[in-house]
Every structure is written in C-alpha cells, then in structure tokens.
Amino acid sequence: MTHVIADDAEALAVARDLAGQFAVDAAVRDAERRLPGPELDRLSASGLLAITVPRTHGGADVSARTIAEVFRLLSAADPNIAQIPQSHFVYVNVLRQQGSPEQRKFFFDEVLEGRRFGNAQSEAGTKHVQDYRTSLVAAPDGDGFLLNGTKHYSTGALFADWIPVLARREDETLHVAYVPRDAAGLTVVDDWAGMGQRTTASGTVLLEDVAVPEYRVVPHHLTFQGPQLHGAFAQLLHAAIDVGIASGALDEAAEFVRTKARPWFESGQAKAADDPLVIQRVGELAVKVRAAEALLDAAGAAVDAARADLTDASAGAASIAVATAKAFADPVAVELGSAIFELGGTRSSLEGLNLNRHWRNARTHTLHDPARWKIQHIGRYVLNGQLPPRHGLL
Questions:
Q1: pTM higher than 0.85 for the full model?
Q2: Residues in domain Acyl-CoA oxidase/dehydrogenase middle (predicted)?
Q3: H/E element, 248
C-alpha cells in the first residue's frame, strides 16, 4: 500500500527517515554494484514520489524548496538513489505543464499509487545534447504512433513502470511519449559502466516500432514557447544531488577524523580532531558546504516565487538562481570527495572503506552539464540584464 504524504513537513520527515536507512549500506551497494531495487520500492511506498502531484489531484504539491531539500537529504545518504527519481519528477512536471486533463488524471493517479517514471531522453553520437534522432511517426494503420531510436544514460528506466521517451515528430517538434516498461519493442539494457553513480543503472533503451496510443503523447515543444520553469526545476534537482554529495562527504570525513585518523606528530595533539590544521581545513570545507546549501535553498525559493507569478523576468531570475547554486556546488562536491583523503590520511585510502565513492559520484554526476556555460549566462544577466535562454537545461 502506498502512503500519501500530506504536506511539506511530512515530506521532509519521511525523507530524513529514509535517508537514514539508505545510508547504512550505501558503500556496500556501490562496491558490489548492488542495484537498489528494494530501496526504491521503499521510496515508492513512502509516498515521496508523489509529493509534486497537484492538490487538485490528491497530492501534496510541495514547494520547490522542499523538493530540493528532499533530494539533498537522499543524496547525502546515497546519491545513486537520489538520482534515479530525478527524471520521475521532471516528467511529472511535464504533465503538469502540457498534459491534457485526461492525461493528468490517469498519470497522477499512477504516481499516487507508487508507479515510477524513468526516462529515455539522451542520445549518444549525435551533434550535441539536444540533437534528438528518435522518431515518433504516425502508425501506418492510422492508430497512434510508432517510436524508433536508441537512448543512452537512461537513468531510472530499469526500475520504472513507465518510461517517458523524448522524440521528434515528422515536423521536428519535440514530444514526450509515456511508454509502459514492458511494451513490445522496448528493451532496457543494463550496460551502465561509469566510474561513479554505479547503481543508477543509467544504461541504454532500445526502441523498435514501439506502438504508442495518441493519448500517451504530450507536446513538449510547447513548454518553451513562453516563460517556463522546466529547466530551472530539473536543474534544481541536479544541484540538490551535488550539494547532497558534498554534505555526505563532509559528514563522513568528520566522522573518520574523529574515530580513525591519527594526528600529525608535529601538532602535539593526541587526537586528529584536535590538530589545529585539520580543524582549519574542516572549517574551510564546512563553510563551502553550508554556502552550497544556502544557495540551493535560495534557488528553490526563486523557483517558488516564479511559480507564484510566472513572467519572463521571474522565470529568468529563477533559472539564474538555480544556475548559481549548481555552478557553486559542482566544484565543492568534487573538492569534498577528494578532501576526505586529505583529512583522513593514508588509511582512508583503503579500498575496503570505499571512501572514493564520494569523489567518483561527484565527478560523474557533475558532468551532466557544464558549469562554465552557467557562469556565462549568470554574467550576461548581471552585467547586461540578458535573460537566459529557454532551452530547458538552465
């Protein structure tokens, strides 16, 4: 039975509880590449996957600040588990923006019952990240459409009940087709071999004449014809994952220093936690992590403000706030993943501890999109008042 969460406060309480559970075996799951199927079932049953369903459809409709904090908490425990439902929330959001009343009712009911959305979005070997070759063409018999293509980095697809597929119609317009995981012609291949985020199963989806009825297709291109928060919301969740990785690494580094590390002999201290240079470094890192958390919260508040009064200006301000949070958090997460060894000393590098998962996870996830372009948009906005583009990745 899937629980239905009532409000923001309950969503945060449930996330804290689950994060505590997920943290226990996170290092072992990573080391053994043990896919988190049971953990995701608990996540579904908890009701957390339905917290952005509108209240008019029975959901909690939590704020962007709350959903960002939920992702940060889960990511601090296990960023693999946090990344898997990122696309789930993005494609719930697509339905909120462009779904018909019938589509919203059907799919929001599915989400409230604990069903999971995966994704089949990115493609490899194309000119750039938004060059989509997957086709959605009218079926020869005139009944619905046929999907054909190959998708990569399909995080969540292996664990999904529904796989939203990004595809182009004959007129080059972009649509999302919501396809059952067991649809004929759809194959999910568990071939993800990244050095980090090992248990996200971000592998390949093959689509061969997959039949899709018209009522399961949403016109995604319409999202970008006016002020929109699609990109800001999606990027907010990615930023929260990175901030969570940094938070988790800081916590584990501090615990290692307190319980396992030795002081440098010149410090004159009996414990590493009393070594003044270790204290200094931990303080510097803590300031960066707290700043990243504050920027994430401010970004969530900006998205909420734009939702309340959506204009070109408010949408642009939200995108810039999210870009700022992510541009700051990405290098902080990578730095924390490395600093854990700097603080822990030689013994922290033992393979059995698997402390390198923090760096591997941070380095892999922060490759999702380049922070350098976010800095460009931030600079243009601050210097010249130029609003960011509506391409959905900012």
A1: yes
A2: 128-210
A3: helix 230-259
Q: Which two tokens stand for residue 267?
A: 């410090």
Closest CA to 91 of 200, 234, 260: 234
Q: What is residue 382's three-state secondary structure? A: helix
Q: One-letter amino acid identity for 230? A: H
Give the CA count within 13 Å in the CB-facing half-sphere of 367. Answer: 10
Q: Calculate what percentage of the chain has a pLDDT beyond 90.
A: 95
**Is residue 372 exposed (0-12), middle (13-18) or buried (19+ Cβ within 10 Å)?**
exposed
Residue with tokens 């059995």: 352
Q: Which amino acid is at 138?
A: A
Backbone φ and ψ for 308, nearest 5 degrees, come out as -70, -25
219: left (phi over 0), alpha (psi -120 to 50) or beta: beta
Q: Is 271 exposed, middle or buried (0-12, 13-18, 19+ CB in 10 A)?
A: middle
As a whole number of angstroms, the longest Cα–Cα distance in the chain is 82
Q: Are 233 and 317 in contact (CB under 8 A)?
A: no
**365-389 tens-digit pLDDT:** 999 989 999 999 999 999 999 999 9
